[in-house]
Specification:
By secondary structure, the protein is α+β, with helices and mostly antiparallel strands. The protein contains ten helices and 19 strands. The N terminus is likely disordered.
Length: 401
């Protein structure tokens, strides 16, 4: 088992890196987190921060087209538990962060409705409900069109009903910052710096080198760098590929607070926040990038998104645009993109990875943090449950098609 005085260096202070630092601290192991920008400066501070009801992911199995959000048939079962870890713990984590870090992460339950506007969509949603029940999950239910009209009187007249499932949500920046602050109180160190190289000794990486010339020794190194996975792993002699996509959403203020329902329809999501604002986003539409340039040059897309939402829910016609935001996400490079990658980095004995989270970084954060901390603390001798998850999500397993 790793010594409590071991120096673990985590590269990346997004939600995954901060969760790993927090879970390591819970095990009595301090870490040093290196971030080029600032905590949650990138996608982790701009996400929707929705924790999906895990059985919902049965609905993407077998979808192997151009949609980024896809998975091979019956593949989700091997790592569904990692979603459940976060889903079950989020309420308690919210209270802990408020008590120990004085941060209200704006946790709330968010009933989520997958709205059907066509016969095909109704069939798909009802099929998913039936699949969930066959698997033993009974929290979902079908809402008839009149039920939706009762909550949203001006909803699109073509609505045929929808599948209601229990989601959760937080405010992403506060959630990530809260994990970092509690980890820091327990001994973690956060510092700004850009990693430009590594020193090695035998089968281990002995230190990292910052652009400033500073060298930081490390007993273990965690790469939690998302879209920069390919760039940083290439300097370690084994390039780990990733598909990079740009995700965008807009935040609006509405004259009258919406009912507490998330609505998803035609690759669009409407997410009411407990502070009264609303997030509008697109789902499942890939915007592939060839590099890590995340400049938001597509304001036309924001206007088109708002137009689509107003057509669906005309009561949002008087909404005021607050912010157009977005950033880069890292997905699996293969055709089946819903494949998180966690575990040991090939070639080096003391280097670990946590990447390819795609749009599910928030929902995966607690589960990934817990599994990675256990793997590092126990030098690979983890519990049977964690071992199965890590085996299913290791690089060697995931690159075998």
């Amino acid at each position: 088992m790793a010594s409590k005085s071991s120096q673990v260096v985590i590269i990346g202070a997004g939600v995954i890196g901060c969760s790993i630092a927090y879970h390591l601290a819970n095990l009595g192991i301090t870490s040093q987190v290196i971030e080029r920008d600032s905590i949650a400066a990138r996608a982790s501070g701009k996400a929707w921060a929705v924790f999906a009801y895990p059985p919902r992911f049965f609905g993407v199995e077998g979808q192997l087209g151009n949609d980024l959000f896809s998975a091979p048939p019956r593949s989700i079962r091997s790592f569904l538990e990692i979603f459940w870890i976060g889903y079950h713990q989020l309420s308690d984590i919210s209270l802990m962060l408020k008590e120990n870090g004085s941060i209200d992460i704006e946790y709330s339950e968010l009933p989520w409705v997958r709205v059907a506007l066509s016969e095909t969509e109704e069939k798909d949603n009802r099929d998913l409900l039936q699949r969930m029940r066959q698997e033993g999950y009974f929290e979902g239910k079908w809402l008839e069109a009149d039920d939706l009209r009762a909550a949203f009187p001006h909803i699109n007249p073509n609505v045929r009903g929808g599948l209601l499932i229990p989601y959760l949500q937080v405010e992403p920046y506060k959630y990530t910052l809260g994990l970092a602050q509690v980890a820091e109180k327990m001994g973690a160190l956060f510092r700004q710096g850009e990693v430009v190289g590594f020193h090695t000794k035998g089968s281990k990486v002995s230190s990292i080198i910052l652009a400033s010339g500073t060298e930081i020794e490390a007993d273990a190194i965690v790469l939690a760098v998302g879209p920069w996975t390919t760039r940083i792993t290439s300097s370690l002699g084994k390039e780990i590929p990733a598909t990079i996509s740009l995700t965008q959403c807009i935040q609006i203020n509405v004259p009258q607070q919406l009912p507490n329902f998330g609505l998803a329809f035609e690759n669009v999501a409407i997410i009411p926040k407990i502070n009264g604002s609303v997030i509008l986003g697109t789902t499942g539409v890939p915007d592939i990038k060839q590099d890590c340039d995340c400049r938001l040059v597509t304001h036309e897309r924001a206007e088109m998104l708002l137009g689509t939402v107003i057509n669906f829910l005309p009561s949002l016609g008087d909404a005021r645009l607050v912010e157009h935001r977005g950033d880069l996400l890292a997905w699996s490079p293969t055709a089946n993109h819903l494949k998180p990658l966690i575990g040991r980095f090939p070639e080096w004995e003391n280097v670990y990875m946590a990447t390819w989270m795609g749009a599910e970084g928030m929902a995966l954060s607690l589960g990934v943090g817990q599994c990675m901390a256990g793997l590092i603390a126990d030098s690979g001798h983890v519990s049977t449950q964690a071992k199965k998850l890590i085996e299913a999500l290791s690089y060697n397993m995931l690159t075998i098609e």
